[in-house]
């Protein structure tokens, strides 16, 4: 089997190279273009006044305890004079809320101290939270480092006043908290304010191997009680993006970082009880992170275990497209920002439900004994990093095993196996060349290779994101091609887009064009909800960045969309949307949506290629309100209304979510959603190659409760509960779809025993205790309770459906998982001792 993996990966390389060699010139061109841009920069570029701070090399290390008053810090220079980012951009810091910092380094790590003074220290917000929950009601300190000084990327390290830590990677204004590394941070509070100390090991950073490092950085502070934010280097929120405003960090020279090899061994036990059957499973494995060099890192998961990932938010799905869920597996979340280039990578494809599990071609007198719900992931690796020439490289490879269903012959007792998914190799490669101050050109390729007579696939995208020298305009272009290699031939499809956006000033226009060909299909390793379309888009936004009257800020956004079928050319619909949004000085947010759409020719509802469904014009209105989260009791609420003109179809949606903070340790959030839609013209079935339609009524109710009790910032008890019910009832006056999209009465009748109605009810409960007992090490004890029921009782009430749900077999699951972080350099010291 191992030799087959080697052959498979080699075959992938040959296959990949044969398909993209004609794109290599793009990377060569962009490298030359980057140099040209650097050499021709003029005074017309965005002018950023950049402060300079000189870091100090040290020979001893501080005690990271949140009290930066020891003699270690005395000779380190102070950085100060912060400037307000929000609400009044550009104001000097208050005398009552001064901020200072110090930075030191040695061959192992950076050391950062923050002094966050507050003349009303007893009212410093200090809600407890767990890792990465930096939006809790606590003050916030951030140290942002850019080891390439490219004004595009940052690695961000956060600490709250309640001693919770967070880390993220940022590109422009996009921030990704799925990034997780091991660093130390501690805080303390006294009558003068609060303080933070951080130790950031070089194993958490990537930087070029040069004697003198060219780094930049930013220090960020958020003061919850007075609703203000500050940065060390002035950040003009009306121009460009935040990463363009870093200060310069000098003095970091001749560092000799240690070997970057981190091991994450884990062990888990899962006991599952369902419908009288109990199983207990034990597993162990290891993830590792290895620094190939100072710029590139290898991540691998060996014997993967995803037994404690969160429940998917499953709903009743009667539409023409699959339901998409977010990624809950840490390996496919962490450090994957490069893989988002081009939008052709959807990690949930890896280990998905086998594509043949729903079509076993059962013969008479056969029954299913076993039919796995997912393909087992065997192993996965990813390599990511960026060279000193600003070329980012991301490579991901994952292999899932062959999956088989077992079918039993009920007459003679024999069994047969049906392959529902082949042994599959998934690959993603991205090359991202940055140029100028804040621009990049990328080549992305997604490849799926299956063993045997199954479909292979390859998707390639070229992405250009260019900001002009004044940071006043952004230009974007994407060109994509998909190939699916089937036993009968190759299906090739294309997608493209071009956009322009004004990125400075209060008035911000946008123009865009999006084309999707008939055969565009990236779904083997991507996800797609659009085909055969041309969309013309225009926006005109007015953004008030600074306080005016009772408002801290407000936005007035207008959207226009004109959508056509690409082949043959056909006007599908046009849409006008207006979105006002307001945020007051007292942190009350509210807004609305007003939308009107012309008659709509739906390409997908019929489930027949090139067969449209004609809908009348419509309007949609909604409004929301969100109160001040600083108060113990806060409320989020929204309501919406949809109606078609001269048609019976209409719908309502109501969402209510109160939250109550019992103390700085305990927060409870309840969410209630009520949705009702009546008389929607909907697909029922296909009869004699004709789409049969009917009016459909649906009703949904969802209740969710989430709460966390934080014993401290390392131990927490968390509750997550969700009950979702939905029913659908079809009118029995069936209609037959015509070629022009209209519908006429049909004599179609349901076969005996056939009922298209639906009743869907699901109950999930998670209760977990987590304990970060050492840096990077965690133990999680999880109890799960889940129930599911689906049938064709479309006239049932919520209470009746809930009663039926509680009669179904309940799955009870208890699991314990322990992960330990091991730095190879520390392990060497143990062995020497």
TrEMBL record:
A GO biological-process term: carbohydrate catabolic process
Record keywords: Signal
The DUF5916 domain, residue ranges: 257-831
Region forming the signal peptide: 1-36
One of the Pfam families matching this protein, by short name: CBM9_1
Keyword Protein biosynthesis included in the entry's annotation: no
Carbohydrate-binding domain location: 64-209
InterPro entries: Carb-bd_dom_fam9, DUF5916
Superkingdom of origin: Bacteria
MF-aspect GO terms: carbohydrate binding; hydrolase activity, hydrolyzing O-glycosyl compounds
Protein name: Carbohydrate binding protein with CBM9 domain
Species lineage: Bacteria, Pseudomonadati, Bacteroidota, Flavobacteriia, Flavobacteriales
């Amino acid at each position: 089997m191992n030799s087959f993996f080697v052959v498979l990966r080699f075959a992938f390389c040959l296959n990949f190279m044969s398909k993209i060699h004609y794109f290599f010139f793009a990377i060569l061109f962009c490298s030359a273009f980057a140099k040209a841009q650097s050499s021709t920069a003029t005074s017309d570029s965005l002018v950023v006044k950049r402060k300079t701070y000189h870091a100090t090399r040290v020979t001893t290390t501080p005690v990271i305890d949140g009290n930066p008053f020891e003699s270690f810090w005395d000779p380190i220079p102070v950085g100060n004079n912060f400037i307000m980012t929000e609400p009044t951009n550009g104001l000097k810091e208050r005398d009552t809320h001064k901020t200072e910092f110090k930075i030191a380094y040695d061959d192992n790590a950076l050391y950062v101290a923050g002094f966050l003074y507050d003349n009303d220290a007893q009212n410093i917000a200090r809600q407890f939270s767990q890792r990465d929950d930096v939006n809790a009601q606590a003050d916030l300190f951030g140290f942002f480092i850019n080891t390439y000084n490219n004004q595009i990327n940052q690695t961000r390290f956060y600490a709250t006043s309640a001693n919770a830590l967070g880390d993220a990677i940022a590109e422009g204004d996009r921030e990704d908290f799925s990034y997780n590394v091991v660093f130390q941070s501690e805080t303390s509070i006294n009558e003068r304010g609060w303080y933070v100390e951080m130790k950031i090991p070089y194993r958490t950073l990537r930087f070029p191997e040069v004697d003198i490092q060219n780094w930049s950085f930013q220090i960020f502070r958020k003061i919850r009680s007075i609703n203000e934010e500050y940065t060390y280097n002035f950040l003009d929120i009306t121009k460009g993006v935040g990463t363009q405003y870093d200060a310069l960090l000098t003095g970091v020279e001749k560092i000799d970082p240690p070997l970057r090899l981190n091991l994450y061994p884990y062990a888990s036990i899962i006991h599952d009880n369902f419908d009288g059957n109990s199983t207990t499973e034990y597993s162990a494995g290891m993830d590792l992170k290895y620094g190939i060099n100072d710029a590139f890192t290898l991540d691998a998961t060996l014997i993967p275990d995803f037994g404690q990932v969160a429940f998917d938010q499953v709903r009743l799905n009667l539409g023409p497209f699959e339901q998409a869920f977010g990624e809950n597996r840490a390996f496919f979340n962490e450090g994957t920002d490069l893989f988002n280039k081009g939008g052709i990578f959807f990690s949930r494809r890896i280990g998905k439900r086998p594509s043949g599990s729903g079509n076993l071609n059962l013969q008479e007198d056969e029954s299913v004994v076993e039919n796995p719900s997912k393909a087992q992931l065997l192993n996965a690796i990813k390599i990511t990093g960026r060279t000193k020439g600003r070329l980012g490289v991301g490579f991901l490879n994952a292999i899932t095993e062959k999956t088989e269903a077992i079918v039993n012959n009920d007459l003679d007792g024999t069994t047969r196996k049906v392959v529902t998914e082949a042994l599959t190799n998934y690959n993603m490669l991205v090359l991202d060349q940055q140029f100028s101050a804040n621009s990049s050109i990328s080549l992305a390729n997604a490849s799926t290779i299956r063993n045997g007579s199954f479909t292979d696939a390859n998707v390639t995208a070229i992405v250009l994101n260019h900001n002009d020298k004044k940071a006043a305009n952004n230009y974007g272009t994407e060109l994509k091609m998909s190939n699916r290699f089937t036993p009968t031939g190759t299906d090739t499809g294309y997608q493209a887009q071009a956009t322009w956006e004004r990125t400075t000033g209060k008035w911000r226009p946008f123009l865009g064009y999006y084309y999707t060909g008939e055969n565009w299909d990236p779904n083997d390793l991507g996800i797609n909800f659009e085909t055969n379309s041309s969309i013309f888009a225009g926006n005109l936004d007015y953004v008030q960045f600074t306080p005016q009257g009772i408002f801290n800020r407000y936005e007035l956004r207008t959207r226009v969309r004109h959508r056509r079928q690409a082949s043959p050319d056909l006007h599908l619909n046009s849409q006008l949307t207006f979105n006002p949004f307001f945020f007051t000085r007292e942190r009350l947010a509210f807004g609305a949506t007003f939308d009107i759409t012309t008659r709509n020719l739906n390409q997908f509802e019929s489930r027949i290629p090139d067969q449209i469904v004609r809908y009348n014009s419509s309007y949609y209105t909604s409004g929301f309100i969100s109160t001040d989260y600083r108060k113990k009791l806060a409320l989020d609420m929204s309501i919406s209304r949809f109606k078609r003109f001269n048609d019976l179809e209409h719908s309502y949606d109501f969402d209510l979510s109160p939250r109550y903070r019992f103390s700085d340790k305990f927060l409870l959030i309840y969410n209630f959603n009520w949705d009702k839609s009546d008389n929607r013209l909907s697909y029922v079935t296909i009869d004699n190659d004709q789409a049969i339609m009917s009016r459909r009524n649906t009703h949904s109710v969802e209740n969710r409760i989430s709460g966390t009790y934080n014993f401290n910032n390392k131990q927490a008890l968390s509750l997550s509960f969700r009950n979702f019910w939905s029913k659908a009832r079809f009118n029995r006056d069936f209609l037959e779809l015509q070629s022009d999209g209209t519908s006429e009465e049909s004599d179609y009748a349901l076969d005996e025993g056939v009922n298209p109605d639906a009743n869907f009810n699901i109950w999930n409960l998670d209760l977990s205790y987590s304990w970060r007992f050492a840096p990077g090490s965690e133990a999680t004890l999880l109890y799960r309770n889940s129930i599911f029921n689906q049938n064709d009782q479309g006239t049932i009430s919520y209470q009746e459906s809930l009663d039926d749900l509680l009669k179904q077999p309940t799955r009870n699951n208890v699991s314990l998982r322990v992960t330990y972080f091991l730095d190879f350099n520390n392990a060497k010291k143990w062995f020497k001792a």
